[in-house]
Amino acid sequence: MKAINITSRKLAIYCLLGLGLTLLSCSGEDGATGPAGKDGNANVIVSDWIPIKWTYKEVLEGKAFMDIPVANIDSYVENGGVALMYYKNDNNVRILPFNFSEFDYFDFGFGEFVKNDNYQTEAFTGFRVYFDGVPVTVNILENETENTGLRYVLVPQPIASTTGISNTISADYEETMELLGINPSQ
């Protein structure tokens, strides 16, 4: 009995000693900080889906445009960045410019726009989305606020050059968002 008691004590001491050494051996000093990783989608600007609300429309001619003010858009483009515009209709998303139908066409421009008394617009910096098509479509697009919308994406030059995104890209929305590491369903 006495031999079993001593053996149990020795085993307990060895276990505690082993546990103590294990805990001490695992805690070391932190090493030097490693190099920084890639920026990912840093400084990429993706707007929310913007309901279509025409700034100017000529219903009888089927022409309209919508102004979307965006500060500093010129600095993105002047420094080699990319400006993209997307149109959503239900779950279908298309990059502009494109033919909405056989008779309807979407396009956009960006930069500084001057005040225009004929169109009753104010000066601003940002995007101007143009629509030219069937007269009735002008009103339909504006009234379908739940199903339609516009979204802009501004990609700075370093990310544009590493991902291959350009102003002339014809990639679909999901591909572009995947390249940028952004969830397309947001």
Please summarize what this structure is:
The chain is an alpha+beta fold. The chain has helices at 2-26, 73-78, 135-143, 157-163, 173-180; strands at 45-46, 56-58, 63-69, 82-89, 92-95, 98-99, 105-113, 124-132, 148-155.
Folded structure, characterized:
It is built from 5 helices and 9 strands. It is α+β, with helices and mostly antiparallel strands and 186 residues long. The chain has one domain. The chain has a 5-stranded antiparallel beta sheet, with no helix packed on it. It is elongated, with a radius of gyration of 30 Å.
* Helix/strand/pairing category: alpha+beta
Number of domains: 1
What fraction of residues sit in β-strands?
A: 25-35%
Specify the biggest β-sheet: 5 strands, antiparallel
Q: Given the C-alpha coordinates, what overall shape results?
A: elongated
Rounded to an integer in angstroms, the radius of gyration calculated over CA atoms is: 30 Å
Please outline the helices and strands.
Layout: H1 2-26, E1 45-46, E2 56-58, E3 63-69, H2 73-78, E4 82-89, E5 92-95, E6 98-99, E7 105-113, E8 124-132, H3 135-143, E9 148-155, H4 157-163, H5 173-180
Antiparallel strand pairs: 1-9, 2-3, 3-8, 4-5, 4-9, 6-7, 7-8
Provide keyphrases for this structure.
five-stranded antiparallel beta sheet; 9 strands; four-stranded antiparallel beta sheet; alpha+beta; 186 residues
